[in-house]
Amino acid sequence: MTVKTIPSAAVGRLAVKAAAKQTKRTKWIYAFGNGKADGDVGMKNLLGGKGAGLAEMSRLGLPVPPGFTVTTEVCTIFNKQLGAYPPELESDVNTAITVIEKITGARFGDPSCPLLVSVRSGARASMPGMMDTVLNLGLNDETVNGLASRSGDMRFAFDSYRRFIQMFGDVVMGVSHKSFEEILENQKLDLGVTLDTDLSAEDWKSVIVDYKANIRNLTGEDFPQDPKTQLWDAIGAVFRSWMNGRAITYRKLNNIPHDWGTAVNVQAMVFGNMGEDSATGVAFTRNPSTGENTLYGEYLVNAQGEDVVAGIRTPQQLTIAGKQASNSTLPSMEESMPEVFQELQVVRYRLESHYRDLQDIEFTVQRGKLYMLQTRVGKRTANAALKVACDMVAEGLITKDQAVLRIDPVSLNQLLHPTLDPRAKRQLLAKGLPASPGAACGRIVFTADEAERLAHAGEKVILCRGETSPEDIHGMHAAQGIMTTRGGMTSHAAVVARGMGRPCVAGASQIMIDYETRMMRVSDTVLREGDILTLDGGTGEVLSGRVATIEPKLSGDFSRLMSWADARRRMGVLTNADTPSDCRKAVELGAEGVGLCRTEHMFFETGRIVAVREMILANTVEGRRAALEKVLPMQRSDFAEIFKIMGERPVTIRLLDPPLHEFLPHGEAELLEVAEAAGTEVETVRARVVKLDEVNPMLGHRGCRVGVTYPEIYEMQVRAILQAAAEVAESEGRPVEAEIMVPFVAMAGEVKVLEELITRVADEVLGPNGTGGVKYRIGTMIELPRAALAAGKIAKHAKFFSFGTNDLTQTAMGLSRDDAAGFLPTYEERGLVGRDPFVTIDRDGVGELIRMAVLRGRETRPDLKLCICGEHGGDPDSVEFCHEVGLDYVSCSPYRVPIARLAAAQAAIREMA
Amino acid sequence: MTVKTIPSAAVGRLAVKAAAKQTKRTKWIYAFGNGKADGDVGMKNLLGGKGAGLAEMSRLGLPVPPGFTVTTEVCTIFNKQLGAYPPELESDVNTAITVIEKITGARFGDPSCPLLVSVRSGARASMPGMMDTVLNLGLNDETVNGLASRSGDMRFAFDSYRRFIQMFGDVVMGVSHKSFEEILENQKLDLGVTLDTDLSAEDWKSVIVDYKANIRNLTGEDFPQDPKTQLWDAIGAVFRSWMNGRAITYRKLNNIPHDWGTAVNVQAMVFGNMGEDSATGVAFTRNPSTGENTLYGEYLVNAQGEDVVAGIRTPQQLTIAGKQASNSTLPSMEESMPEVFQELQVVRYRLESHYRDLQDIEFTVQRGKLYMLQTRVGKRTANAALKVACDMVAEGLITKDQAVLRIDPVSLNQLLHPTLDPRAKRQLLAKGLPASPGAACGRIVFTADEAERLAHAGEKVILCRGETSPEDIHGMHAAQGIMTTRGGMTSHAAVVARGMGRPCVAGASQIMIDYETRMMRVSDTVLREGDILTLDGGTGEVLSGRVATIEPKLSGDFSRLMSWADARRRMGVLTNADTPSDCRKAVELGAEGVGLCRTEHMFFETGRIVAVREMILANTVEGRRAALEKVLPMQRSDFAEIFKIMGERPVTIRLLDPPLHEFLPHGEAELLEVAEAAGTEVETVRARVVKLDEVNPMLGHRGCRVGVTYPEIYEMQVRAILQAAAEVAESEGRPVEAEIMVPFVAMAGEVKVLEELITRVADEVLGPNGTGGVKYRIGTMIELPRAALAAGKIAKHAKFFSFGTNDLTQTAMGLSRDDAAGFLPTYEERGLVGRDPFVTIDRDGVGELIRMAVLRGRETRPDLKLCICGEHGGDPDSVEFCHEVGLDYVSCSPYRVPIARLAAAQAAIREMA
């Protein structure tokens, strides 16, 4: 491909004259329309989702206005070379326009029968509202008259023209939307009217004059009259919009690579605003909230497409059922346009049987004729995804494996978290649309920035807005839930919240927000920023104060799909759980054992921390032993309870890991308290605190280093574990499997020394021949690079490894999780790291160390049991990695257990494919 | 080998009846004497140094009293199995005793002609005074009379007997030396005498009664009369002494593995205390301080061997020259025993021509007859080592390569550090013997514990003692220098200090130390603990206060040997130097360039730190740029000066590495000062300090992460470097080679981004075609495990790697150097780490990462230049590792440059062998 850099003045326009010799000509343009198409649904990377969908619908013979797609490759060239196009592009576009002209019978710039087109972005992945769109392109001072005469509606024509100028001014020429809105407001004030519909054709003509002057004033340039100039400018603007701030943020949040680029779709205009027999709408082929197998969507009569998505007018339901469900008084399309509705139902069946998945479609009705403008795989709630997948298996559309692959493991989060307790007292404040399910509770904030600020400070917040826009993405992400006072189920807020898995109530129109005074009002109730609000995204209720929650009840579809998943996965799924309640929850969610029980959390409980501190403050082994004697029975009963809950499932207990200073107080008052409890001087305590303090606690005196230097601590823990195991094996008359795990190992010698210690204590507790009921094994964490390298030697003394990928990431990358916030965002922005390496495993670095450890460990001990227990164990990508490198188990927090089960199954299925 | 555990009551005695069938019989005992020997010098591991030396001397026909060696393997069995011996040992010992009896004509326990033996330890490596010795064994209430009649000296016989009881009581039965000394003191008080020599045979008999009662009182057991029992008890005590605390400490300090074990040498007694024609002495075949080729040593007339080493009596010189040099008034052996002296000279020639090295020998003269009791390679000062090596090359005894291999690189430290300025004013306090060369200055301390405590707190201390003992080792190691008021050139203090390379003045007898009041006095001058003292170990001067020092003048032998070394080594040696004075020193010591110039040290200089802090406090890029503009000319002039000094040698400059918060103040007053200087509120400064503070600064926002997030800082530094280079290339009319090094890289992307930045700034500064005179290269530190793994990708953007092994050790092992003190000593004690991994590279872990990085880096870029610049670059073992893995350079601090040169040469020579 040859590209040419265009001087900055002409950025976005075509480099016309560049000569390029190519042996094989790259195709930059893919046409569609009239039941044919150059492209198809398989070309999403090249044509974007919208372009591929339009091509596919055209091939299917669905009513698609003719047009063409400029490929994502052009975008990449354009953005890399600061506004250069491939030299052949101009003639390609001209040819494609001619084809549209032939099909429509209209001509670009023809004053009597002008061709009008839309110019829309369309990336590989859907990025709702992120990039720019221009409609009605081709209108100018002359062609507007042609539109008027052909539509027979002068007012419509000039309204369309002023909309075009406004969009073009905003999107292409950088003139603020607000400046146009002000002109319009002034016009209405002058005329003494309130609604746009009150303006006549003449009024619009006057607005147009002001609009053009506004552009001239603010840019020093005239609004271009030449349709070709308009077109090239609009294409350039769409390509540039790929790199705007909100698009970049969206891609970051959704893990979309910046180098994918967007395609541009140029398509003959159809008008949903040509009167009462015209409409525009958005629909899903099944209900995206519940998965119910019924057409689901909204439409607006006499409106242009963007009006629905923008959520400014509250739209009407497509079906009678939908109308009833939403208590709407406006007529459904099923009632008001029955023929079009039937046509839409046919389209729905065609698309579903073709795509075998729930589709999200956009359409326009122009004077009673249906036109399809988009189809794509529809976003859905996790519940809906489960139901759709299970239903489609039952309908014979897809296989069980396909169903398993179709569920985004992370989306299960939505199903697993608590919902509002129906019996809890609720103070209903207002009711809106149940736009995204789940319960959320937090402090009211009114701006995205404030949401982000407070969330970073650890507060849970609810973002409350009139409506949301792409600028609010970061705040929506930071919030627990989103509430809007305007907009419908397909408004920006609703779509984005569902995608993020955030509960959302949309269009709670009784609420009035006053951004100025930072308060909101429902009749005479006033809520201020910082007050607590609860949302029920499943019912649309907005509640004052905090409301109790209950555990979710999982649907039959959930267990059906999980059973298909479990049948496929090779890896076992354990849980990281420190408390009996965590263990119970994990078992309920399918955990096959405990992969990581952190004993130090038990140390912090009231009544224990005193003894623990006494132990740390003791200067002698005897003093420490005396204090540990007090801790022993407490730890023993903790372990016993966990062994009881876990039944015969293995329980892996990690010996003390954090440095001792973590248990000591730092404030004056607390120091005094500890000194009194320990019967010593506050100065002694302070001195000990200072002595134990570390410059880099992460790399400090912790883990097995504590066990080597203060063996009495580990002895107590091992004793407590095995006494508890023996007790439970005895009382329940069944075997207990305890896995004792040594943390923060750097070299084999450490494991050897502690293996001796553990074995010695075990012989003491269980007797030299062991107690039949108690099976214990000794293993290690692998969480230091050196341990990964020494895995072969370590495996001589360890029967299992558990990869502590949090610490392994910190040490391999030299990256303190607590301190990375200062630069990691910059790194993500500059593409230096893909995803946060603390969320998704760094395959090249940390991953290679794991791979090495697996190989070396298994070489020494072929039946070495391998697990991961860092937080990566609940991240689907990382779970796939674990499957690939041959781990036996992943261990994750209880709520992530189903996610890991599903991800493990997907990895196994993908491997078989 | 079959071993048998002996019941604790009988620990140390023989397991008699155990039956063991062995196909091949292990030899536990090696006899020597009468011009023959079972062993030889090659069996040091099995026989220990002393045993091998005795065997070899016996084979050479030198006069060695007959005896046998119990091997180190027996020690290992004994200490592992808590006091068990191989079953065949008893009969082997009996046989060996019979052989001695035959040679000497005396018999064990024979009342008329008793065989007396010494029982001495002897490990593979010399551990002077660390383990126990028993002399005169075989004496009892009956045999003492035989000794009396055969020696014709009743007094001698009973003195010998009481000495034996005292040693045996102390070493074998655990009765304190002090309790015996008190009995002796009381006896002297009762008799009204002051010297031991004033006691008659009858007096000794009375002492013996009290000694035996003392043992009975304190242990409940009788002093054993049976010589066989005495022998087995003594052998067990020597084996046990291998594991005593001071021996363990010594081995730790000297990197001697605990599993080597000691041998036990049982040898017929000869007596140096049989009158004025008897003597005992210690000698070196050449002067161990200067290397001069002359017999050098001391002797004591009418004394037993231990009296010399203990340093209690001040001994006489062997030669007339030695007597003159030490201003002694006592007759030399050359004068008083000319025949014996000539015999000793013959022995000296025999040993040197046989061993081809300086030997350290022990001998006893019994009634005019010379007996050799020990020979071993003699410890020597670095200067002596150089002279001996060079002289022996000249004498044709060894080759140049052997000479190079013979110098311990670390010992060069002694030559390179400053000595006292002869023109500086000195306030002479006292004069002792020049026991170990070099100048030392520090605060006076009187106990080893205090020395260690203050040294850990960062103080420099001089340990002042009457005499030192093995219990003081840790304090001697912690001290800058050692001063004793008693003892000679071969006293404990002198020998150990020379071995450690610590300056030492021994026997400064004018000084009186009062431990009680913690002061010392010379006539009417009083010095208290904490006062400053200076020692000149080269002259024996003890000086009050601090005395100016001068740089050492290196001898011709030094440059001769270094030239032989340089001719052999493959690796280049660079220096870590941040200042012009460091650079000058390094060039003088042979550095071939700068391998690491840390720019941050320049940031701290007065006048700069204000601008640097201003930069950090700025909230905008512009603010930072403005502050950096002020720093630029300062850095430029620093670099220019270094380029001038280094001539055409390459200079590697590391871009800013530490996190920014390291430059901010923490105290209130300083905060205020900075706020005023920056014209901002103190709260703003405090907030910034808090915001930048890190939990784990080692893994924080540092190194290239600063360069990526605040590119303007690195831009300034690169500009300063290249402007300086261009300036010097221009003014000096010669090329300048600047290597720009990016620190703390974790992934290739970082290097790519910074390569772009550096190249851009370079193009700006040097012009697009570069300035002919300036050659610059971009490289990286490899100091994170992930960087080592990603070396292949990183090498695409880096022309050189420098291994930052300090940080690589910290991250690979998860070991914060600042925090490791809490457990590393325990680890060393338990043998979990060999040497401190921050001193000697951890070959298995860190080493493997380096190996991988070397392989992967060179695969991408075959001419990749590889260097190490961690502190390991000056450690001989680590230098050898660098040679093995194929690095091109090592870089170390200026004073370590010769050490690295020598170590690199030794590695190359060993490789050729």
UniProtKB/TrEMBL annotation, chains A, B:
Stored Gene3D superfamilies: 1.20.80.30, ATP-grasp fold, A domain, ATP-grasp fold, B domain, Phosphoenolpyruvate-binding domains, Phosphohistidine domain, Pyruvate Phosphate Dikinase, domain 2
Keywords of this entry: ATP-binding, Kinase, Magnesium, Metal-binding, Nucleotide-binding, Pyruvate, Transferase
Coiled coil: none
UniProt-annotated binding residues for substrate: 598, 654, 783, 804-807
PEP-utilising enzyme C-terminal domain location: 555-907
Domain called PEP-utilising enzyme mobile: residue spans: 459-540
InterPro entries (UniProt xref): ATP_grasp_subdomain_1 (IPR013815), PEP-util_enz_mobile_dom (IPR008279), PEP_util_AS (IPR018274), PEP_util_C (IPR000121), PEP_util_CS (IPR023151), Phosphohistidine_dom_sf (IPR036637), PPDK_AMP/ATP-bd (IPR002192), Pyruvate_phosphate_dikinase (IPR010121)
EC number(s) stated in the UniProt entry for this protein: 2.7.9.1
Keyword Repressor recorded: no
Active site: 492, 869
Limits of the Pyruvate phosphate dikinase AMP/ATP-binding domain: 45-81, 88-393
Lineage top rank: taxon: Eukaryota
Chain sites annotated for binding Mg(2+): 783, 807
Catalytic activity from the UniProt record: pyruvate + phosphate + ATP = phosphoenolpyruvate + AMP + diphosphate + H(+)
A GO term for molecular function: ATP binding
Cofactor: Mg(2+)
Family: Belongs to the PEP-utilizing enzyme family.
Protein's UniProt name: Pyruvate, phosphate dikinase
Originating gene: ppdk
